[in-house]
Amino acid sequence: MSDDNRKKQEMTAIQPPEVRPGAVQPNASISRKLRDFYDAVQEEGIPDRFLDLLERLEQAEKNAKSVNVK
Amino acid sequence: MSKEDEIDDRGFKRDLLASLPNLRAFAVSLTGRHDKADDLVQDTIMKAWANQTSFTAGTNMRAWLFTILRNEFYSQMRKRGREVQDSDGLFSERFSVHPEQYGRLDLQDFRKALDKLPDDQREAIILVGAAGFAYEEAAAICGCAVGTIKSRVSRARARLQELLGVSGEGDYGPDAGDAAITSRAFGS
């Protein structure tokens, strides 16, 4: 392979890829990272403190209602 | 959604629970910290519960909760001033606590970049790009025009690309690790 040819090949390699089906756009990379970050938090699920809190709120509401009935 | 008109107390709690992971991720995005985010979520749950009669059954509960959380966040920020100053230090601290959950270095860099965005741009790109809201819903949550949200999202994208050194080159392919190696190889 001549030097000329190698240069040509390197230049081709560095050029931005053509848009082809399934290719990821620059913005898509940002979007994917954004979702990765967000999903990582979502996948932690619901901490117990919130389940407890809702339980207490619900109980307090029930108690208040039963007082009203009397 | 359907049959939301049959909503009762149970339905309210069920829908609230279903929205919580997403709501919490939004809180983490806004505050940059898990402990602050969880306090914010707790305040939001209390507010939402106390105001459940003002929630219109059949409308989007997620959007309603996000609006409460967002208002709460900004009103607390106005009261206290934003305590998060040294975001780099804070983030590394957080990550050293939960390294297994954020194993990818990639993601840490992304969080740091995200924190460098102005608040209005960050929330816009999170709502539209991650939380799954339409531009119209995001605009309603933020109390601004749809066009404003669109321009904030596009400015946020441009800024993130700049911060992360992402351009058309080397930023494709299924694996970010490969892309990083590729760009390093080209860079040297």
UniProtKB/TrEMBL annotation, chain B:
Highest taxon listed in the record's lineage: Bacteria
Entries under SUPFAM superfamilies matching the protein: Sigma2 domain of RNA polymerase sigma factors, Sigma3 and sigma4 domains of RNA polymerase sigma factors
Pfam families the record matches: Sigma70_r2, Sigma70_r4_2
GO molecular function list: DNA binding; sigma factor activity
Family: Belongs to the sigma-70 factor family. ECF subfamily.
A single GO BP: DNA-templated transcription initiation
Domain RNA polymerase sigma factor 70 region 4 type: from-to ranges: 108-160
Name of the protein in question: RNA polymerase sigma factor
Domain RNA polymerase sigma-70 region: 20-82
CDD domains recorded: Sigma70_r4 (cd06171)
